[in-house]
Amino acid sequence: CGAQDVSVLDVAEAIKKVRRLGQSALPEAYQAIDKAAKRGVIKKNTAARKKSRLTRSIFKESKPQSPPGRQ
């Protein structure tokens, strides 16, 4: 276990931080999710799904409209 290790808990903490702080913490969460996928902690499609759902939830909370690109 080194400083470069990443776990599912790291991803979960990043997601919680985004839900608490909002859009400003989104890049950090993306980084944690991508790092976990790169190292094989989670699968690539799982990472994409988590990022998509996280982004949708942030835009849903901030505006009653759909996310950009949707009509």
Characteristics:
71 residues, 3 helices, globular
- Number of H- or I-type helical stretches: 3
Count of beta strands: 0
Compute the CA-based radius of gyration.
13 Å
Provide the low-confidence segments as ranges.
Answer: none
> How many angstroms separate the termini?
46 Å
pLDDT averaged residue by residue: 85
The major beta sheet can be summarized as:
none
How much helical structure, as a percent, in the residues? Answer: 55-70%
Report strand %: under 5%
Structural class assignment: mainly alpha
Coarse shape: globular
- Order of helices and strands, N to C? HHH
Written description of the protein model:
The chain has helices at residues 8-21, 26-38, 44-62. With 71 residues, the protein is an all-alpha fold. The longest helix has 19 residues, at 44-62. Helix 1 runs antiparallel to helix 2 and helix 2 packs antiparallel against helix 3 (44-62). Helices cover 65% and strands 0% of the residues.
